[in-house]
Amino acid sequence: MVRTISTAEHLAWIASRSSVSFLQTPAWASVKNEWRGESVGWFDGDTQVGAALVLYRPLPKLRRFLAYLPEGPDLDWSAADLPALLDPLTRHLASQGAFAIRMGPPVVTRRWHAATVKAGIADAALRTLSDVPADESDPAAAAVADRLAASGWRRVPTEGGFSAGQPQYNFWIRLTDDDGPLTEEQLLAGMNQQWRRNIKKAAKAGVVVTRGDRDALADFHRVYTETARRDGFTPRPQSYFDRMWDALRAEDPDRMTLYLAHHEGDLVAATTLVRVGTHAWYSYGASTTEKRDVRGSNAVQWQMIRDALAAGATVYDLRGITDTLDAEDSHVGLVQFKVGTGGEAVEYLGEWDLPINRVLYRAFTTYLKRR
pLDDT category, 161, cuts 50, 70, 90? Predict the structure, then answer.
């Protein structure tokens, strides 16, 4: 059975798990305030066996919704009978006015070590990550995709590894191995020479990394908008980050942290970190054009990694990358920056749609294509 659950029930479920995506916390509904949010739970009798945050996006002029579960739901994806879990969800969301469901199963399908990605970029014959044999593949994840397709779910097309929602490829740094947590020395040793040199250069130059309070979001946003102008993307308004801060930290004071890197009193880089249990995410970053040579971006990343390790995180997630390995592609620079940390590229199962009302779903997808 699937039913609406309270925020308290949802948070109790999250507390019982090692981690779930921060996009699946009740607080995220307050951040995405243009959507209607609902927490739902799966129950086997009186025992809860899963949970999700659902965001309802309304169709213009109609009280019908796309029900979106970003990087969710959190349930047993290894279950052989997935329809027994997902069909009750469909019935519940349809009763709430959903014309379609979009979800992003938190299922990892393949992994490529940093050395493998680096070699792929150097090989002109290889254009994308999928052209490179993975270091690790999970047959069970492929079986999930087959079961979803057999149940009528449709994989959302991606371009460069990105769909309209969340990235299919992320870059992780594992903070533990079979022997337990890694040391800072081990993490540094896993980085390439350029990363280690830049961290040392920042320290020698006197870059100081501190944590900021809510008032410092204005300083972060100033540098963030400068970064947006330089890199050619549309920045989010400061009100978005204010909502993130208020909602996430109200849920858990350690959920979101702001980092500021200063050099001789000048702010040179700023980032936000989000953590849920054992998973920590680098969510937003910014740097100034001036004083880039003091390597504030490397310094602030290294501090976040160290703090995530000290907090007991097992994964430091640098979030999305494109799937390009083409040395001529402008996006490959971000891939190379993250590869330098010594982590791994991680492929998720991607996002999937289930049309409930096919006419409205077709109209919605046509509308998205024309935007």
Answer: low
